[in-house]
Amino acid sequence: MSTRNKTLIAVLLAALPVAMLLALSSGPVAIDLPAAIASGWRSDSSDSVILWQLRLPRAVLALLVGAALGLGGAAMQGMLRNPLAEPALLGVSSGAALAAILVLYYGAAVSGLMLPLLAITGALLAVGSVWLLAGRGASASRLVLAGVAINAFLSALMALALNYAPSMFAMQEIVFWLLGSLANRGWDQVLLALPFIVAGAIMLFLARNYLRALSLGETSAASLGFAGRRYPLLVLFGIAFAVGSSVAVAGTIGFIGLVVPHLMRPLVGQDPGRLLWVSALAGALLLLLADVLVLNTVGTQELRIGAVTAFIGAPFFFWLIVSGRREMSL
Predict the structure, then answer these.
(1) Dist CA 206 CA 185 (whole Å)
(2) pTM to 2 decimal places
């Protein structure tokens, strides 16, 4: 690993504890943070309860979800060899969201573990549909087109679910959940998402050399021993596990998987393998800072973090368009 990469990782690792302290210090109620930390999680004081049962699990979940989205976006861009790809492009997020909506509001009561499992199943079904629609040996462009078609179909199904919501309250809850939020999340959600995100990260780690070889082209990757469907399926399953479980506990949060890998790629020398872990760290940092912004925004109702990340992502698109026009004019 080069000195530049080590420096980048060191900066990200150093920034995460600072962002964590900001998150633990943020909220509508001021607390004595040092005293709450010193008293421990078993204390019955109000400051300790707020810290250990409300703010800390929310901050940890922001780190996990941000890391999963950054990791999934980097893997998706590496597999499609498209710097503008993200998990939502192939319907991963929409498939997981649709499955979670059906479970939450239209299905029978299920155990807590079933929600991420069914969200992951929805993500895998969406990816499988894209794979079948594009056909065997499909090019990256055909996969993107198939993903757009499946994503549009899933969005239509979610709109249908909204239309036939059992009550206005349920419809409002669906809309708020689709915007993405970390509000009212506790240790139960952290423990639900953690094993699936770790499993997805392990799969993507095992596929890192495949992503490196794929950057040279599909023919070159096959000549290097990465022929067949094993490694593409490993990447898709890894993305589905990481992103699907994130959607199950936090709703749909966009643009993290697009913005973070695109910004980090030049800093790792365009290496898809190294980009995975740098994007995971940067995604965790970005989502945690976005949640700090949410917590410090004064209003009658808390901002949805999906709206905040969209405000971050939209100017990024504008910048891409402007910079592209400048390069073409030179």
Answers:
(1) 31
(2) 0.90
